[in-house]
Amino acid sequence: MKIKLNEIKVGERIRKEIGDLEDLQSSMRDLGLMQPIIVDEQNNLIAGYRRYLCAQRQGWDEIEAVKVCPNNKYEKFVMELQENTLHKPLSWVEEVKAMEKEKQLYEETFPEATPKAVAIAACHHKRIPGLKTYVQAKSKLVSRSTKTVITKLTLAKLIKKYPELENEPTMQRALRKYEELTGKRYGTISDALLHRISIYCSKCSRKMQKSKWVYNKEQNVHTANYNCTECTNNIKCIVKGAK
Ligand SMILES: [Zn+2]
Question: What is the Cα–Cα distance from 212 to 142, expressed in whole angstroms?
Fold first, then answer.
């Protein structure tokens, strides 16, 4: 089907570098559009941003398009991402930013799958079978370890704090640069991580209060006691590794 160019809605794009449009433009001028663009039911552009730009520059009124109907924002984003990475891989910066966005949309779409919701359900022995957090789902999908996924999500956060990391050619180099800048080792347990661990009482659902983390050098573990302020429930939490 054909749709009017001025009816197409373009949101924020994953890829920031659109690259050189000359070749595509001359091919579209000479041969027409070889591959339709993809939009959703509301004409939001899902794939074909470069083709859309060329059509606009050439003064086309309308363009050949295929309509798809993603069920939610998360599905729409995944479709866009797949189409985007089909022809040219994303840079590592684009990739980690896309992953962070994907996680946000996943958790908005499946609120029961946030780490917090899963932790609460687990305390109540009400784990939903088959339900995965974003990190678990993503690592299975791309057949990489959860650690790899977590590293990429961490980098998405780190480049906000240290924008100069974006200039590094690879993720590994960015991590080394981060170590240079901060004097910290990446991959060890951060204070932020230990601080974030929340446990909810299995009896009364209240957030449990934590004692200080204590490091045991021989076993290379951090331990803390969590106590419920309402009932007498208490739990010992053990995290492997040093700071
Ligand atoms: Zn309690």
Answer: 37
Give dist(CA 165, CA 122) in Å, integer: 37
**Ligand 1 ion: nearby residues, β-carbon < 5 Å:** 201, 203-204, 228, 230-231, 233
Q: Are 15 and 90 in contact (CB under 8 A)?
A: yes
DSSP characters for 28-60? HHHH--SS-EEE-TT-BEEE-HHHHHHHHHTT-
123-162: pLDDT as tens digits: 777 778 888 999 999 988 888 888 889 899 999 999 999 9
Measure the CA–CA gap between 68 and 79, rounded to whole angstroms.
10
Q: Which domains does the chain have, with CATH numbers?
A: 2-71 (3.90.1530.10), 90-187 (no CATH), 199-243 (no CATH)
Query: What's the gap in Å between 93 CA and the centre of ligand 1?
Result: 43
117 SS3 class: helix
Residue 231 Cα to ligand 1 middle (Å): 4
**This prediction's pTM:** 0.70
Residues 225 and 234: beta-carbon distance below 8 Å: yes
The CA 112 to ligand 1 mean position distance, Å, reads 22
